[in-house]
C-alpha cells in the first residue's frame, strides 16, 4: 500500500525537497497528485556536477534545467540555487535562468561557478530585484550595472568574487537599505582602493582575505558582530559603541608604506578606546604590535570596560607587547576567559612564564587563563599553559 501518496501535500512537498531535483521531478509519473506537486516546487537546487554524474551523459544539464523550469507553474520561487561549470555552459543560459527566477519573485538566489568563468555580465535584473532577500555569489566576475537597487535584501554573501569598479562596488553596498548581514571573503578587489560599509540595519559584518588589501571605512548604527582581516579599519565611534563581538586580525605593519603607518597605528587605539559594550573580543595577527607603536600608547588605551568577558590575544613575547597587554587587562574587571597565543620567540619558556606572571597580577581571581605557545614543549608541539590567577600556575 502506497501510504506516502496519502500524506498531506505540504508534507509530501517537504519530502521532495530532500531529494535531488531530478528525482523530485521524476515522481511526477507516479500519479496526478505527485505531478501537481512537481509543478509547484518553490525550492529549486540545480547542481551541474551532481546531475552529470547521475545522468552519465544521457541528458545535457542545460536541457534538463530548461525542462524543469518550464514545468514550474508556481507564482513565486522561495529559493533558487545554481552551481554550474562554465567550461561547458554559456553565460547566456545562466542569465536566462536568472531572469526566470527574478520574474518569479525569487527570495533567495545562490549562484556558484565551480569551473570556468563568466563570458559576459550577469543579468542586470539580479541587481534590481525587489523581492530578493538573500543573495550569494561565488567565483564570479562582478561587473555591475549603473542602476542598482535591492530594497529588501537582508543577506549578501560574496566569496571569490572579482570586483572592477570602486564606485559601483560601494554603490552596491549602499543600495541595500534592509541589509542585516554582509559577508565578503577571498575576493579580488581589483581597482577598489577604499571599501565603504554603510547601513542603518547592518548587524553582522565579515571581511576576510580581500586582495589587494583595501582601506576600509565602516559606519553603521547598530552593528553587533564584526570579523575582519586586513589593515586596521576606520570605524565610526557610533559603530564601535554598538559592537558586542569583534575579531580583528591585522597584517604586519611592515607591509604598510611609511606615509600611512601613523594613521593605522592611531586607528588601533581608536578601536580599543571605542569598544564600550563589547562582550567578546579577539585581537589577533599584529594588532597588539600596532598598539605598541602608537605615540603615548599607554595613555591612549581604554578606561574600564565592564562588559568584556572573553578575550583572545595574539602576541610576540616582547616587553612592549607585554606592557600593553597588562595595561589592557587592568581595564577589564569582569573578564572571565583569557586566551593568549604567544608567537615564536628566542627565550622560549622563560618568556612565557614571565608573561604569565605579569598578567596574573592584574586579573581577577575567577579568570580562566590559557596561554598557548609552540615553545613550551618543543617535542610535543603547541600546548596551553593554564593558570588560576593569584593562586597558582599549572602547565597542562
TrEMBL record:
<dbReference type="InterPro" id="IPR001810">
    <property type="entry name" value="F-box_dom"/>
</dbReference>
<dbReference type="Pfam" id="PF24758">
    <property type="entry name" value="LRR_At5g56370"/>
</dbReference>
<dbReference type="Pfam" id="PF00646">
    <property type="entry name" value="F-box"/>
</dbReference>
<feature type="domain" description="F-box/LRR-repeat protein 15/At3g58940/PEG3-like LRR">
    <location>
        <begin position="95"/>
        <end position="209"/>
    </location>
</feature>
<dbReference type="InterPro" id="IPR032675">
    <property type="entry name" value="LRR_dom_sf"/>
</dbReference>
<dbReference type="InterPro" id="IPR055294">
    <property type="entry name" value="FBL60-like"/>
</dbReference>
<dbReference type="InterPro" id="IPR055411">
    <property type="entry name" value="LRR_FXL15/At3g58940/PEG3-like"/>
</dbReference>
<dbReference type="InterPro" id="IPR036047">
    <property type="entry name" value="F-box-like_dom_sf"/>
</dbReference>
<feature type="domain" description="F-box">
    <location>
        <begin position="4"/>
        <end position="41"/>
    </location>
</feature>
<protein>
    <recommendedName>
        <fullName>F-box domain-containing protein</fullName>
    </recommendedName>
</protein>
